[in-house]
Every structure is written in C-alpha cells, then in structure tokens.
C-alpha cells in the first residue's frame, strides 16, 4: 500500500524525523490559506500523486507570493501529471502539499528496503541525491552505498555513522544525519514498511538535516496491525480493477496488455505471463484466484478481466491442487451466464482458451465438453494454450 508524500511526512514526524512544515490542500482556497498559515518567504506547491518524478514533470512549483501560490494551485489541481512512473496515461492531481521552503545547501539520497537475497533490511545512501538518482545508479554505481541490517538486532549506531561518513556528510552534521537514519529505521520497522525513501535528504545552510521528500510503502500483510495507516489509503490513486479484485479475495495486477490470464498460484501466474510473452502476446493482467475457488469467484474473475474492454482474449491456465478443475469449469459456465444476462449477449465476448490439469481434471473437461460455452476452446498443454490464445487475439485485431 502506498500513501501520499504529506501523509508519509506526518508518519515520519511522529517518529521524531525532521520534515518541513506543510499543510495539505484540496482546493485553491485551501492552498492560499495554508500558505498564509506557514508565513514563509518561499512556499513550495507540490502535486500529490502516487508516483515519482513529479518535479521533472512540472508538479513542484516554487512560489514567492500568495498570488503565485494561487496561480500554481490553480494550474496543478485537476491537471493530469505524466511522469516516468505513471505511464503515458498519467495521474490526475486531486490534492496538493503546501510547504515552507528550505535553504538547501546539499542534497542526498537515503532509503530502506527489504533485501530478499540476504533476508535483511538494506539501507541505501548516496551523496548524489535529487531527481536523477536512477541515472546515478546506472552510470556511477560506486556512488550508491549499502549497509545491511540484521533485523534481529536492528540498525546499530556504528552502521549509521559509517553510512554518514561514506555519504560524505560534513563533520558538523554527522550526528544529525546518523540520528535521522536511526529514526527512519524505527519508522520502517514500527509501521511494517516495505520501503522508506527520502529523496532528497538535505542539509540546509543552517546545518539542519531535513527529509525534504518522503515516500513510504507498506507491507499489505501487516496492515491489520496499523488501522491508522489503512485510513490514509487513497483509493482514487489505485486501479479500480485491483480494488474490485481485492474486495472479492482475488489477487489482480493490471499489466496493461490485451491477453488476460487467470491462474491459481503466484508462481504459475508469473510463468503464464512469461509464456504469453514468449509467443508474442501482451499480458493484460496477473490474476491468481487462490487455492479455494468457487464457481461464483471464478465468474467474478471473468467479469473483472473483461471490464472496460481491455482484454481481447483470456487464457485460463489451471493446475488443480486444492483448487478443483470441475469448480473452475462450472465457474466459466456461470461467468458466461452472468455476462449474457447483464449484456443481453450470448456469453463471453472474447476467445477463451482453457488448459486444465490436476484434481478432478476429467470432470472439469467433461463439463465444458458436454455443455460447450461460446468462444471457449480447450487446450491440452500450457504451451499450446498460450500459443493459441495469442494467435486468436492477433487474428481478431487483424480483422477488426
């Protein structure tokens, strides 16, 4: 789960982290009032969306008067901001952060993430902070410093001090920098974060160490422990299909393509996406129906995949263990019935290739053979099924 920058800063502030004073605003009037309250010589007007690269995309403005705050707020609210993380469709700006300016002397980069290879948390730092950190990592990897943290003992003071020296903080602010690192680690652990990213972490001309920007991501599996974090969720920033799927107990991720896939198990889902790409297809989604499906759940999965017309074909790739192939088959029939009733059509509007293996496979195949569903084709193998659905989608596109 992601939250906005101003929310991230509120969380960090509760752990004693130094962040600029700022106030969220949802209207132009609120933005101007916030600037009045801050009473800063320089006011920063920042678009709040769940994506990085806002500065380069024109989503961060420096105002030196209330009139400029009003001008920039008017410009940004309602604007579709396109960054390297949003994709070409961009994200609409619905809220702003009005923040006091900082007298920046030097920018740094600092983050905490989970490292699966070592089963540790890794603190990543660089003296080359700012908007081009990805470029630094690609072109000057020696400037990216890593400190691995054993979760059983936590971040030790000597590790934070070592990181501060390697990042070339000047002696006058070493203690402030290390204290900031320790507090950020406390926030990472205390709120079950999957990522804490500060870019930039700045030293001001007054030798203050401030988290000028902040991005916090949270482990969904730990959210039950943090109802305060759940309340910060902005559903307008999330894919409607992903929200719909989550409410139905399905794991869905939109991948933007046109060949939808429904599987059981995350490993099989990733393999299915890979094999669709291998045969020249463009996967529309990652959809794992889990290990205990019902016909109703399968029917809902079909509705989600077909919603909005994104999917031009569907590949059902099931290896039944706990899931039973006959239940999957019944779900496909139920989906066709529901879609027909809702749309007045004669069933599923796009080609569906079904590969079934495992528990009750013969019964599942018999259900679909004895009572065939329009546009549903059986495939004996995973490879053959993937190749077939890609060919059908391409043929439909050619004939469209």
TrEMBL record:
One of its GO terms (cellular component) is succinate-CoA ligase complex. Its cofactor is Mg(2+). One of its GO terms (molecular function) is ATP binding. Signal peptide: none annotated. Binds 1 Mg(2+) ion per subunit. Heterotetramer of two alpha and two beta subunits. This is Succinate--CoA ligase [ADP-forming] subunit beta. It comes from Anaerovibrio slackiae. The lineage of its organism: Bacteria, Bacillati, Bacillota, Negativicutes, Selenomonadales. The gene is sucC.
């Amino acid at each position: 789960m992601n939250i906005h920058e101003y929310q991230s800063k509120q969380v960090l502030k509760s752990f004693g982290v130094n962040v600029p004073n700022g106030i969220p605003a949802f209207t132009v009037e609120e933005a101007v009032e916030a600037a009045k309250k801050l009473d800063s010589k320089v006011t920063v007007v920042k678009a709040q969306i769940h994506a990085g690269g806002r500065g380069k995309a024109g989503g961060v403005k420096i105002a030196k008067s209330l009139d400029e705050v009003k001008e920039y707020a008017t410009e940004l609210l309602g604007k579709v901001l396109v960054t390297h993380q949003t994709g070409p469709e961009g994200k609409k700006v619905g809220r702003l952060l009005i923040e006091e300016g900082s007298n920046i002397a030097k920018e740094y980069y600092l983050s905490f993430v989970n490292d699966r290879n070592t089963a540790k948390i890794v603190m990543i730092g660089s003296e080359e902070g700012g908007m081009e950190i990805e470029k630094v990592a690609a072109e000057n990897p020696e400037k990216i410093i890593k400190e691995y943290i054993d979760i059983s003992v936590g971040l030790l003071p000597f590790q934070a001090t070592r990181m501060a020296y390697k990042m070339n903080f000047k002696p006058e602010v070493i203690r402030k920098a290390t204290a900031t690192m320790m507090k950020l680690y406390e926030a990472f652990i205390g709120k079950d974060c999957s990522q804490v990213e500060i870019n930039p972490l700045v030293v001001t001309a007054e030798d203050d160490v401030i988290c000028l920007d902040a991005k916090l991501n949270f482990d969904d599996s730990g959210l039950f422990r943090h109802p305060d974090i759940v309340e910060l969720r902005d559903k307008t920033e999330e894919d409607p299909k992903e929200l719909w799927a989550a409410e139905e107990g399905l794991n869905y991720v939109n991948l933007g393509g046109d060949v939808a896939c429904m599987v059981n198990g995350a490993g099989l889902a990733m393999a299915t996406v890979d094999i669709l790409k291998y045969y020249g297809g463009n996967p529309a989604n990652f959809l794992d129906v889990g290990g205990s499906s019902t016909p109703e759940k399968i029917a809902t999965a079909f509705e989600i995949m077909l919603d909005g017309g994104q999917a031009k074909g569907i590949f059902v790739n099931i290896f039944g263990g706990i899931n039973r192939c006959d239940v999957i088959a019944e779900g496909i029939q139920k989906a066709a019935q529901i879609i027909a009733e809702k749309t007045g059509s004669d069933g599923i509007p796009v080609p569906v290739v079904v590969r079934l293996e495992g528990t009750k496979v013969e019964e599942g195949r018999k259900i679909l053979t004895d009572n065939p569903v329009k546009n549903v084709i059986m495939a004996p193998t995973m490879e053959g099924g993937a190749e077939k659905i890609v060919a059908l989608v391409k043929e439909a596109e050619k004939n469209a």
